[in-house]
Amino acid sequence: MPVIRVDSFRLRGLRLATAVAALFAFAVPVWGQSASIGADVVSRYVWRGVDFGESMAVQPAITFGAGGLEFGAWGSYSISASGASANENDLWATYTVTAESGLSVAVGITDYYFPSPGADAGFGAGAAHTVEMSLAFSGPETFPISLFGGVLTKSSVLYAEVGVPFEISGVGVGLHMGFVGGESDFYGTDEAALVNLGVTASKDLAITETFAVPVSVAYILNPDQDRAHLVFGFSIAP
């Protein structure tokens, strides 16, 4: 494996930030197709089977869309001071191509940034930034399975996930299973392992005739860490 200098990670992060800024500055005024804001409130921030912060969290998001291109920012902020090391502020972009059958393929890039107090703002080993390249498939209504694969630039370890949605008595239900392909400090694995096995149930809670709040409950098991989580969340968007 070639040795990658820390400067190359900084350069990748700079290029990503510059690209997102350029898209914001030029693409949105030209096409101006969509923009959205919102936030989730969750009893625990559990990401791919890993609990970040051991605390409730507020997760704001802003998204812009133009054709098959979407980009934006997403964050997670613990309501507990002890969970500040898990605070997160990500930039991301995806480009999706959808066939007439409903099958879609999306290519994405995400800069995971953990701005904890005193964190190294660079992109090298132990720094606050981690970049991931990803590829996702989503099936049509006749076969609504989803597949996701992502590789972190720091470790080159693959994370793969499969999901299946369905409905029971008006409640949306989703099953998912996530796997890490090898040793990874990011996921806390010593070898290839199943880290994210669970089920999520969601339904809109009607507040008025024209406004509803999506609520969800997820049971998430991480067999590699011998931990299970039951997470409640709701979303707010204008």
Describe what this molecule looks like in 3D.
The chain is mainly beta and 238 residues long. The chain has one domain: monomeric porin ompg (Porin), CATH 2.40.160.40. Helices cover 11% and strands 53% of the residues. The N terminus is likely disordered.
Question: What is the molecular shape?
Answer: globular
Low-confidence stretches: 1-14
Number of helical elements: 1
Residues in helix, %: 10-25%
Corresponding CATH superfamily: monomeric porin ompg
Quick one: how many beta strands? 14
Major sheet: arrangement of strands: 1-4-5-6-7-8-9-10-11-12-13-14
Q: Calculate the terminal CA-CA distance, rounded to whole Å.
A: 48 Å
Strand content: over 45%
CATH topology: Porin
Domain module count: 1
Mean pLDDT: 87
Instruction: Write down the secondary-structure element order.
Output: HEEEEEEEEEEEEEE
Largest sheet: 12 strands, antiparallel, barrel
Structural class: mainly beta
Q: Just name the CATH architecture.
A: Beta Barrel
Please tell me how large the radius of gyration is.
18 Å
